[in-house]
Design a protein that fits this description.
Elements: H1 2-41, H2 43-64
Amino acid sequence: MASKLVKAAIRRGQRGMTTAEYAVGSVAVATGAGVLTWLFQQEWFKELLMKLIEALFLAITGVFAPSGV
């Protein structure tokens, strides 16, 4: 009988931990989304992103460009 009570108490304690883990995960996701939103609104980040895309495009097209061009 006592072992059943201990097992039941352990199971109930684990339910609370999963709820806390979901809460921490939700806060982390919301924080990450806020940081990304802030970054995408910054002019310097937009310029950096455009330069990276241009460099990637040039690297890809440079590989496929004819050697005489």
